[in-house]
Amino acid sequence: MAVEKLDPSPITQTKPLVQVDRLKKYYPIAAPFRRAVHFVHAVDDVSFQIRPGHVFGLVGESGCGKTTTGRVLVRLTNPTSGRVLLEEKDIFRLTKLQLVQFRQSVQMMFQDPYESLNPRMTIFDIVSEPLDVNGIGSLREREERIADMLNQVGLTPPQAFLFRFPHELSGGQRQRVAIARALVTNPRFVVADEPTSMLDVSIRTGIMQLLAGLREKLGISYLYITHDLAVARYLCDDIAVMYLGKIVEQAPAEQLLRHPLHPYTRALISAVPVPDPSYQRPPVNIKGGVSRPVDPPPRCRFYERCPLATRRCANEDHPPLVERDRGHWVACYEV
Ligand SMILES: Nc1ncnc2c1ncn2[C@@H]1O[C@H](COP(=O)(O)OP(=O)(O)OP(=O)(O)O)[C@@H](O)[C@H]1O
Ligand code: SF4
Ligand SMILES: [Mg+2]
């Protein structure tokens, strides 16, 4: 039987490391010197939890709000409303000391290792920067820590890389530097924003294996952002599918891939190979492309593209997330 979600966050057994609670981020659209009257609903009432040591995947097409969610979680941008708790502390109400600890224990990995690494800095300076900014360790300790990090990310021997510049490295090596930089402060939680999407397929696998290995070894929790369900399946424990600022389905990774319920998830998945060749999944066709969520009408965000839409979908508000199976949540009136 379906159980409607009373608390918008799925119930988990272990205490969550990260708890996102009814998060909204609206961007005003204003002509110069005019008051904003329209808003992009980039993230619109999103709740989820990440357990310690788990990887939570956020998947969806371009513009659905993945990066915006990630940026709020690392405090690169403020939410319009809602809360984000790290170890039960509201990350937007931290004391000075707590903020210093937050800056060490939370990091972000970016999509583009070409843009996110300063071309004028050596690899040593790039990886060292988060330690410098946070005043961690003596020069000697930093040197040891950086050499250890380069070893861990497979840039060996470290001496061969320390005093080189980003343009002297390959794309895969640059992404390894970005990973070393994100992990050098020994964070508990990392937002990884499509860190493999700019890489060739052959290099991508190596980086994914590295991320999976480091997660096991260091016990880091990730919010892993990707538009690619195959990548999410490889790395993530749970997957949430976003569509125009809303989570429309969330489940443990295999469950979501094998038994998708939401018509949007089913359409996304029809392109992803399933290991069991006897398993047949009917393809679902969806119309049109993704629009920008500017002042979206108060109905299901997927209505315009949905092959199952009914009159109810047109007349009622966006459907709530409802638990259909243990840990499997879906927001749709018709499935
Ligand atoms: N600073 C901003 N000002 C105005 N609108 C913004 C801003 N940043 C993002 N948006 C809008 O918010 C929506 C969500 O953007 P976001 O970058 O979070 O999506 P995304 O899922 O990460 O997309 P992609 O897969 O292309 O990286 C988009 O419609 C985008 O145009
Ligand atoms: S609620 Fe209606 S429009 Fe929205 S996904 Fe479900 S069937 Fe489609
Ligand atoms: Mg993005």
Written account of the structure:
This protein is α/β, with parallel strands linked by helices. It has one domain (about 15-120, about 190-330): Rossmann fold, CATH 3.40.50. Helices cover about 30% and strands about 20% of the residues. It contains 11 helices and 13 strands. The chain has helices at about 65-75, 95-105, 115, 125-135, 140-150, 170-185, 200-220, 230-235, 255-260, 265-270, 310-315; strands at about 5, 20-30, 40-50, 55-60, 80-85, 90, 105-110, 190-195, 220-225, 240-245, 245-250, 320-325, 330. A 9-stranded mixed beta sheet has the order 1-12-13-11-10-4-9-8-7, with helices on both faces. A 4-stranded antiparallel beta sheet has the order 3-2-5-6. Strand 10 (about 240-245) and strand 11 form a beta hairpin. Helix 4 runs parallel beside helix 6, helix 5 packs across helix 6 (about 170-185) and helix 6 runs parallel beside helix 7 (about 200-220). The chain starts with a strand and ends in a 5-residue tail after the last strand. The chain binds adenosine-5'-triphosphate, iron/sulfur cluster (SF4) and magnesium ion. Iron/sulfur cluster (SF4) binds near residues 300, 302, 308 and 313.
Task: State the gist of this model.
With 335 residues, the protein is an alpha/beta fold.
Helix content: 25-40%
E-strand count: 13
CATH A-level architecture:
3-Layer(aba) Sandwich
**Bound molecule kinds, no repeats:** adenosine-5'-triphosphate, iron/sulfur cluster, magnesium ion
Strand order of the largest sheet: 1-12-13-11-10-4-9-8-7
Q: The biggest beta sheet, please?
A: 9 strands, mixed
**Total number of helices:** 11
